[in-house]
Design goal:
Elements (H helix, E strand, L loop, with lengths): L3 H7 L5 H13 L1 H22 L3 H16 L1
Length: about 70
């Protein structure tokens, strides 16, 4: 990870105090934040499985099928 000073260098709209405040909040609420992140990951996985292959994946599959037929 980066030091607070390095984070501020990358995000000049933040102050070192902002970074320490965010770190403090995270450390005080770590379990809840990690649970929320896990719930979001699960939701995304569920939505991706319901949606089926993306357009890009469909095109890749079609391209591979076309290549197989041509051989």
């Amino acid at each position: 990870g980066q030091s607070p000073a390095e984070i501020v260098a990358d995000f000049p709209q933040l102050t070192v105090s902002d970074v320490y405040a965010a770190l403090s909040y995270y450390l005080d609420h770590r379990q809840k934040i990690e649970q929320q992140m896990a719930a979001v990951d699960k939701f995304v996985e569920e939505q991706e499985s319901k949606a089926g292959p993306s357009l890009i994946e469909q095109l890749r599959q079609r391209s591979q099928t076309d290549a197989d037929v041509s051989s």
